[in-house]
Amino acid sequence: MSRRQSPTRGLVLTATVLALIAGACGSSAASADQASALDQALRSFVHRGDGPPGIAVVIQRDQAPVLHQAGTAIVGTRRPVRITDHLRLASVAKAFSGATALALVAHGDLRLDTTIGSRLPGLPPLWAPITLAQLLHHTSGIPDFSQSPAFQQAVGNSLLHPPAPRALLDFVATDPLEFTPGSRYAYSNTDNIIVGLMAEAASGHTYPQELARLVFGPLRLANTSLPLDAAIPAPTVHGYAIAPPDPPDDVTNLFAAGWSWASGGIVSSPGDANRFVRAYVRGTLTNAATRRAQRDFVAGGSEPPGPGRNRAGLALFEYRTRCGTAYGHTGNTPGYTAFIAANGSGTRSTSVTINAQITPKSAPRAFRALRSIFELAVCEALH
Q: CATH classification of 7-92+225-382 is 1.10.600.10, yes or no?
């Protein structure tokens, strides 16, 4: 597969994907035509000079999920991405920490108004009045530890040896709050680290144990885990850094997942990601009152942005697209980008995973094409 492509051709491909979306969503085209449009968009995307080696899109409208894929899971081979292959979900992990916390709320072990100070009294006093709901809503005002220069230097110095999860908070423990808690939205990886620690304090078990008990087990997510090291189980979709005209650089095991833990450390598969979002949006793991509270949406977008107009709920984003409204999460990390979404009842769903980190900052043209694929996948799932 060629890694070189002119900027002009890249714009043409992006325009083609947008046109395909308009046709699929704005007409009464048959399901087969929509699936064909999606497949064509995926093939175009992996042949971009700034595109990923491979992409997998799972669509589920009926009982069985359907995999659409293009490109390769491992550069230098023709092996496609498979529905049971393992890869990093990046910040989609925040939906998993949200699912764990909301399950504990439903069980009575936590409340949405439970404060940090009541469960984790050793954390900074400024954080003490902040509630679980504000953490899940990203309205806490606590700075994002991953943006700290000290954190970034620490990662670079010790890629494979992360500190204990609580120590991740030390990178911003002496910083002031960015705003009064509850007054506005600001995406922060710190929020979900604290959510994981609150789950541990409320349950008396480790966060991975609670994930297994409350999420992985009940949903039968056989290919999903939260490692602390850099290993990804086999079969593995390799992750790549894309910087044309250089060839893709394999970064699959570049860093340990413990550096992002509950905010981004989940390893899963395209199939499990789809299974999870169906149950998560449906409210399988929680109760009706908590599910209603989860959908108190405010202005705010996931990172990277999802399709259409984004709004933020409790560890859940609303995506208002031209084809209808879906709910889910996005994520990106070196080597991988992911998107999951389902309709309000969880009966129609999609997961989109690629083996490259493509964001509005790192590759704006490629990301526009990827975001269009997110929307095309939603259209295919909803119709």
A: no
Q: State the residue for tokens 């308009």.
A: 22
Residue given tokens 């491979």 in the structure block: 54
DSSP string, 35-67: HHHHHHHHHHHHTSTTS-SEEEEEEESSSS-EE
Residue 15 has pLDDT above 60, yes or no: no
**What's the predicted TM-score (pTM) here?**
0.91
Q: 360, 379 in Cβ contact below 8 A?
A: no
Looking at domain 95-212, which of 3.40.710.10, 1.20.58.220, 3.30.420.40, 3.60.15.10 is its CATH number?
3.40.710.10
45 backbone φψ class: left, alpha, beta (φ>0; ψ -120 to 50) = alpha
Strand partners, 54: 71
CA atoms of 243 and 297, how far apart (whole Å): 36
With 0-12 / 13-18 / 19 or more C-beta atoms within 10 angstroms meaning exposed / middle / buried, residue 97 is buried
Residue with the larger pLDDT of the pair 174 and 29: 174
Q: What is the pLDDT of residues 312-362, one digit of tens each?
A: 999 999 999 999 999 999 999 999 999 999 999 999 999 999 999 999 999
Place of tokens 């954190």: 151
For the chain, percent of residues with pLDDT exceeding 90: 90
Contact by Cβ (8 Å): 315, 264: no
